[in-house]
Amino acid sequence: MTSVKLKLKESDVQKLKEVAKSFNNEAGELINVLHKAQEIFGYLPAEVQEVVAQELNVPVAKVYGVVTFYSFFTMLPRGRYPISICTGTACYVRGAEKVLDEFKRILKIPVGETTSDGKFSITCLRCVGACGLAPVVMVGDKTYGRVTTDGVKDILKEYDTED
Amino acid sequence: MELIKLTIDNRTVEVEKGTTIFHAAKKLGIEIPTLCYMNLKDLNIEHKPGGCRICVVEVEGRRNLAPSCATECMEGMVVKTHTVRVLNARRTVLELIISDHPFDCLICAKSGNCDLQSLAIKLGVRDIPFQGEKSTYKPDFSPAIIRDMDKCIMCRRCETMCNDFQTVGVLSGINRGFEAVVAPAFERDLDHSECTYCGQCVAVCPTGALTEVDHTKNVIAALSDSKKTVVVQTAPAVRAALGEEFGLEAGTLVTGKMVAALRQLGFDYVFDTDFAADLTIMEEGTELLDRLTRHLGGDKEVKLPILTSCCPGWVNFFEYNYPDMMDVPSTARSPQQMFGAIAKTYFAEKINVKREDMVVVSIMPCVAKKYECTREEFATDGNPDVDFSISTRELAHFIKSANINFNALPDEDFDKPLGESTGAAVIFGTTGGVIEAAARTAYELHTGKTLEKVDFEALRGFDGIRSASVDFDGVDIKIGIAHGLGNARKMLDDVKAGRSEFHAIEIMACPGGCIGGGGQPLHHGDSSVLRARAKAIYSEDESKVLRKSHENPSIIKLYEEYLGKPGSEKAHHLLHTHYFDKKSKQVLLD
Predict the structure, then answer these.
(1) At the N or C end, where does chain B have fewer CB atoms within 10 A?
(2) Is ipTM strictly over 0.85?
(3) A135-144, B82-91, B164-173, B508-517: the lowest-pLDDT one
(4) Longest CA span, chain A
């Protein structure tokens, strides 16, 4: 947890307030609103959760409870190229863990964190519905199938030039 | 009403449709153990997350064991509550819970009063076959409540009290799986949350995860210092509950024994917060009459309703939630703080003791009072008006540790002058009492007539929100009463929206008022205890010769000798306060 209060962009906050309004500011829509909030801000820092709590009139502790319960939600900013490794059953039995270890080794970060240059982040997810391609890795919206440990550095290389 | 017949442990029972197995069994006298289930009937609070799985039973034809607290009875159901399978499962569940719990029972604040410990004793747990990682969290020390989440078993009762009953919303279940725990947002400590320190989470916690800050050590240190004059005050609700800690039936009044015990413990002066409650009525009642007279005279500037301000949990609540209404509550300090201010000025001068040589201790049914006496505005040059506040539970421990045979003590009387009080003061301890006391005095001051019947039955009762009209000789005074902060919120929102027409409102943070305070002996889910305590309070009122605050001779003398009249400049300086906007002061990540 940082000790400095983040200053959110006013236009983004306004967007979030409109999202809440589109859900009639209903407390029951908390998860939907959080999804949209994460789309807007890329992650859900405390300051964003405070706004959500206020707009839906729910305690901020409750919002934090939901954010920390679902692995989809993150309180840390993700990299420009967020890497998601599927560790669902099919991918797992076909070596997803070794692939994950290789990403961690090369990027020197654990799951859930972002490289210091803000370029890559690693998360795990459960099943993207492409079990035939197991093990599956996603970088942003791009999907890679039948990934091997040797293939990991090739994937990362694709993003070398784009920086 | 549809009735259902079922069999539990080979006995037939008939229950209403919708009844759970847990309650049907209870009807047969079978107490199924549980760690998470909680039913506070008088408060309309039922907590049944079905989470602890201690209450599982076998239902014929069903593959899995059923949690009895969350399974409804069906016609013809055959239930077994103590088969080998059930007992093994229950034991395994308990062993798993204990495997992630510290083994420091000997020195735990909850030892002897812990539901987890009691169950382990009941089931005869002798070893824990499961070894593994244990959850560890940083303990959270606030001015009133200690959170030691290593001892949390995730029953989530505290969450229900904090959110559903109190609507404070500080505690929530966070994270998932092994890391799951109950915490304030962003795992801040309580001191940096909107916690009101009402202590209702402490009152329902089955283990030592939530306890009060113990100030007994500081009190003992003061008592053993020969240079200090130690003065004690006892809140009205304490005398109606302290006996429970010594095995006496709920509702046994122990006023005289309590005074005797305090004297034996070595306090130099055993006084009564009731004295200050009478004083509160003089100040608050005068303020009410003043606002009322101006309002009836057509003064548009005057704010009504007036809200009581005796309860520190309630004061915290409105400072966080209604910063725009800070001119509505009475400016009168709470009785605890009025007592401290008078003890360290008027009384200290009387006995020729310097302020810094006097220690004022309060015995309170409350944990928020610990916080209240640390508020900066209640100190002179850094010396607090009330030095330490200990709860009813702490006092009971203190008496036991001093090897005093409480039940054999003779009845003794409070010292004078700050121990003299009327019946109006003692009812401060129960919901509706403060406003009834105020009505008794305000009626006589307003009408100039003698109030023949002092019991305002319309103001009594246990409903969370009540309203009544009191006839002030032709003028109808509309009074509102709420206990529990969730009920207070409803009432305040009505005031804010202009839907309420009350002249005066009494609010208490805890269920039943102070008798159900966070510092009282634990009720272990039996809310009938609160009713018994309320009855005891009213019986003490009835037994008094003087039952109106303004007739208290020591109060009359205090005004004659020292304060002048209610609302005087001196009274304002010593007995009134101001409030702070805590919402905008709340810094997110400090």
Answers:
(1) N
(2) yes
(3) A135-144
(4) 50
Nearest to B438 by CA among B551, B283, B236: B283
Q: Which residues from A are below 8 Å from B163, CB to CB?
A: 59, 62
In angstroms, how far is the first alpha carbon of chain A from the final one?
29
Give the distance from residue B175's alpha carbon to the nearest chain A alpha carbon, in angstroms.
5
Task: Give CA A16 to chain center in angstroms.
Answer: 18
Residue A151 has pLDDT above 60, yes or no: yes
Read off the pLDDT of residues B560-584 as tens digits, 9 standing for 90 and up: 999 999 999 999 999 999 999 988 6
* Catalytic one of B245, B372, B420, B540: B372
Architecture of domain B98-213: 2-Layer Sandwich (3.30)
Facing A47 at nearest CB: one of B183, B588, B590: B588
* Of A5, A46, A61, Cβ closest to residue B169: A61
- Looking at the complex, report in whole angstroms how far the Cα of residue A34 sits from the nearest Cα belonging to chain B: 16
Backbone angles phi, psi at B226, to 5 degrees: -65, -20
Distance, in Å, from the CA atom of B207 to the CA atom of B538, rounded to the nearest integer, reads 33
* Of A46, A62, A65, Cβ closest to residue B588: A46
Give Cβ neighbours of residue B303 (< 8 Å, ≥ 6 apart): B291, B327, B328
The fold of the B217-575 domain, in CATH, is Rossmann fold (3.40.50)
Q: Do A5 and B169 touch (CB under 8 A)?
A: no
Q: Tell me how long chain B is.
A: 590
Distance CA A111, CA A78 (A): 11
Q: Which tokens go with B574?
A: 């010593």
State whether B172 and A1 contact (CB < 8 Å).
Answer: no
Q: Which of B36, B159, B514, B540 is catalytic?
A: B514
